[in-house]
Amino acid sequence: MNRIFSNSPAEQSLAHLSNGGSAAPALRGLLRRDLLRAGGALIVGFRLRDIALGQERVEKPGPPDAKQVDTWLAIHPDNTATVYIGFAELGQGSSTGLLQIAADELDMEMGQIKSVRLDTNVTPNQGGTYSSASIARGGPQVRTAVAEARAALLQLASKRLDAPVERLTVSKGIVTSNGKSVSYGQLIGGKLFKLAFTGNAPVKTPTEYKVVGTPVPRREMPEKVSGKYVYMQHVRVAGMLHGRVVRPRGQRMYGAGAKVLAVDESSIRGIPGARVLRKADFIGVIAENEWDAVRGAQQLKVTWETPPALPGSEKLHEHMRSAKSDDNIVRERGDVDAAFSKATHVATQSCLGPYQAHAPFSPNCAIADVKADTALVMCSTQDVYGTRNTLSRVLGLPLEKIRVQYYEGSGTYGHSCYDDVAQAAALLSQLAGKPVRLQFMRWDEHGWDNYGPAHVGEVRAAADANGKLVAYEYRGWQHGWSNVETSEQLALGRATAEWPGGAVQGVSALNCGGMYEIANLKLVNHKLPVTSYLKGGWLRSPLDLSFSFASEQAIDQLAFLLGMDSHEFRQRNIKDERWLGVLDAAAKAANWKPRKAAANLSGAKVVTGRGIGVGTHLTSYGAAVAEIEVNKETGRVVAKHLYGAMDCGQAVNPGNVEAQIGGQLVQTASRMFKEEVTINTTNVTSLDWSTYPILRFEECPEVTAVVVQHLDQRSTGAGEEVMAACAAAIANAFFDATGVRMRQFPFTPARVLAALGRA
After folding, report:
1. In the chain, how many domains are there?
2. Considering the entire predicted model, what is its pTM?
3. Which of 224, 247, 275 is the last residue before a domain boundary?
4. For the chain: N or C, fewer Cβ within 10 A?
5. Which residues pair with 527 in a beta bridge?
6. Could you tell me the CATH number of the domain that includes residue 259?
7. Do 323 and 464 have their domain in common?
C-alpha cells in the first residue's frame, strides 16, 4: 500500500491513495452545536456530589438508558475501558473506528479499550447498522458520552491530586499533576458513574486528535485471517437440534406468499429422527443430525397453491413502465420544457436496472432457544432491537422476555435474510420446545432474498453551446421495500406491508443531477406496489447504480456532442468544491488525459476504453474512473483498473475507508457485469452461483482508492458512496471503447453483442 498527500480545492486536506482492499439528505457541514464543541467553547463543571459512585453494571433487558454515561462506558480496575456501542461489525471496521474516537476523547491507547458483542441486555440502541451510519451517526454519540465521562474523571482526579482541572494532564488513562498521578482505574474502576449524559461536555478539536484520522489496524482482523474468528455459522449450543425450512424453490409474487395445500409427512419416514414442524404455511424439518434435517427438507412432499403470474425477466421492465403507479414530483425548479426547446444539445437515455441479490458467501444462520416465557436468539441482524421487536410479534412474547445477541455473518451489504432466518429459527424452537440451529440452504438464500428492486430510468439533459447544463429531467419507476419477512408472512398469515422510510426508495435528488448546477430541473418518481413484484430491500447503495447508469451516461453524451472532454465538462458544471475535490482526485489518480470520448475507436477484436462518473448514496461525495476491455467477438467485458475517490468528511480510520472504496469498486464491477435475479412467470429461477454468477477472483480488477480527508468536517458515511460513480464510469468507458451506449446492465455477453450489432 502506498500513500500520497494532496490538497482539496476548499482547504488543506490529507488524501490517502492506495491500491487495496451507505434517507433524507443530512446537512453538509457542522451544525452550530458541533462548531461550539469543536472549538471547546462549552465549559462544563461537575460537583463531586454529582458523581455518585455505585455498584457494577447488571445485565437486564434493554435498551439501557441512553441518558446515562454508564450506558456508554465502563472503567475497569486495571485501567482499561469498555465502550458500549450499538452498531454491528459487518466487516466495515466500525468496531475499530468507534474505539478510535473513544481513545482520543479519553486520552487512552487503543490497547486499553475494547467493546462487547451487541446484545439487547447490554448494549445501547443506536439504531440499525445501515445507511453508512456507524461512524456518521454513532461517532458523535460515542464522542460526547466519553467526553462527559472524562470530564467527570478529571473532577475526581482534581480532588485526589489536590490540583485544579486545568493543571491536569492525561496520558494512557493516567492523570498527572505536580509529580503525582492517579489512573482512571484507581479513580472509579469497577464502579458506576451514576452520571447523567447531557451531551454538553467539550470534545477534542481536530488538532488534538492522536488516533482519529490514522489507519489503525482493524481489531478483529487477526482472528479473521487466522481462521479463529467466530462467525454465526460456527456457533453451537448444548442440546440443540438442526433445522431447515421448506419453501417452494424461488419466491413468488411478494403479496401472494406461498400457500400450502397439502403436506405428506410420510415422505420422510425413512429418515430417522426427522420431524415436520408446521405453523400455518410455515414448514420446517428438524433432526438431531444436520444432514438428516437437510435430507428431510429436500424430500418432504408439499403441494403448493399456484401463485399469481409474474411478468418474467424478458417483460419485467416493460410491465413496470406501463403499470399504474403512484407519481410524485421529487424536485422541480425553473421551466424544464422551455429550456429544452431552446437548448443547443439534448441527450436522452432510457435505461434498465435489474433485481440484484445480497448473495452472502454462506447462507444466513441463526440459533434460537425459545421457552414458555423467554427467548434467546443469536443471529446476524443489523439491528438487534429491531429484530427483537419483530420476534416479539412472531413469538407472542413481551419484548423484555426476548434477548437478541449479534454474531457476524459472511457479509450482507444490506437487508439480506438475517431477520428471516432468525424468525424461522425462533418458530422452529418454539414448536420443538428445544434450541434449534437453522441455516438456510443456498436456494433459500438466493430464492427468498429481499432483492434490490429493478428500475426503469428515463433521463434527458440539455446544454448550451458554451457547454453549460441548462435543463435536466429524470423519471424513475421502481417499487419499495417489503416490511414483513417470509417466515412471519407464512406463519402468521400477516398481510404484506411496505417499509416506511421512503426517500431512499425512489428517485434521488442527490444522484439525479444533484451534483451539477442546473437552473431548470425536474425529478419525477413513479412508485409501484411492492406486493405485485418480488420482495424488495436495501442493497448496498440502493438504486443508485441504476440512477447513475442512466443519468451520467446522458451527461457524458452531452460532453460528446459538444466535442468536450468528459472530465472537463463536469468541471465546468460543478460548483460545489467537495464534488470537484473527488472528481479531480479520481482523475488525478487515473492520470486522466483530456480528449473527446470514443475518439480512438478501433476495428480490433479487443478494444479498450476509459470513463469517468460521479455519484453518491446519502451525504458523502464519490467519483470514479474505469478502464475496461471489451471483446467484440465474445461480448465479454472486463474491468482492468478502477479508481474511486471519496470525501466522507472526517475519515476516522482512512485505512478502513480505503478498504471500503476498494470493496465497492469490485462489487460494482460484479453487479455491472454479472449479477441479475431471473424470474419466469411464477417464481425466481436464479437459485445458485451458476444462475446468479458473481465476479470471480481471476476477473477482479486492480483498484485504487483515494480518501479525501477533512478532519474538521463531520463524518458522513463511507460504506456505499462510490458505487454509483463506478457504475457510471464503467458505462461511459464502454462508450469510449465502442462508440455504443449500453441501455441495460449487467453487461452480459449476449447484451453486449446485441448492442454492438444494433450499432
Report:
1. 3
2. 0.92
3. 224
4. C
5. 326, 478
6. 3.30.365.10
7. yes
